[in-house]
Structure formats: C-alpha cells, structure tokens
Write a structure and sequence with these properties.
The chain is mainly alpha-helical. It contains five helices and three strands, in the order βααββααα. α3 packs antiparallel against α4.
Length: about 130
C-alpha cells in the first residue's frame, strides 16, 4: 500500500526516527527511501514495504517488529474503511437509480448511472494506485 509523505512522517515520528518533513524528503531524494511522484499536486507516494525497509536500518530489531506490526494493522483497517465507504456510496447510487425508475425520470436515471460509473472508476484507481 502507498503512503503519502504526511502518513509516512507520522509513522517515522511515532518510531522516534524524525519529526522533520524535510529530512523525509531528503531521504527520498537521496534514494534512501523509495518513492514515486504521484503528481505535483499530491506529492510523493511511498510504498509501505520500502518505508519499513528504511526503518529497519534505523531501529533495533525489537522496535522494528513492533512498528511493523502496527503499520500492518493500520493498513488493513484503512482497506476495510475504504471498502465500507465504497459500499455506502454504491448503495446511495443504487437507491437513486431505483427512485429514478419508480418516478419514471430518465434524467435522474442517467445521473444515477453516471454516479455509479464514477464511484467504480474512483474505486479502481484507488486500488490500482495503492498496489504500486
């Protein structure tokens, strides 16, 4: 899963490695932490495994195992949270589609269909982006 610079910095802060955003950016630029530029607007994305590999060089074995377990747990929770939000959005789009059909409103039905497509595209792109 990919992390934003902010999310990665929170993990590094909690581990006691750094609180400085510029330090993290320097490590990225130096290649010590692998990252890819997602977009100029949204910044870098850091793969969780790459961040953990970097952290392993900075922490004792025991500290590293504790952080690794916590990060893994948080990533699973984040995936479940996203799945719930997606299901809720899909349910709303479906309810809108049913209402449009009951009221025989083709414009509203088109809107519901477009909303469904956008939700699915957003879901696909988020899953694809996180898998890098």
């Amino acid at each position: 899963m990919n992390l934003t610079v902010k999310e990665a910095l929170e993990i590094l802060e909690e581990a006691g490695i750094t609180r400085n955003r510029e330090s993290l950016r320097n490590w990225i630029r130096q290649g010590k932490i692998k990252a890819h530029l997602f977009s100029r607007k949204e910044g870098y994305r850091i793969d969780t495994d790459d961040l953990l590999s970097f952290m392993e060089t900075k922490l004792s074995e025991q500290e590293f195992e504790l952080i690794k377990a916590r990060v893994s747990h948080e990533q699973k929770f984040k995936n479940y949270e996203w799945d719930f939000e997606l299901l809720e959005a899909l349910k709303i789009a479906q309810d809108l589609r049913v209402f449009a059909r009951k009221t025989n409103n083709p414009e509203l039905e088109d809107l519901a269909e477009e909303a469904h497509k956008l939700i699915m595209q957003k879901s696909y792109s988020a899953r694809f982006d996180d898998s890098k």
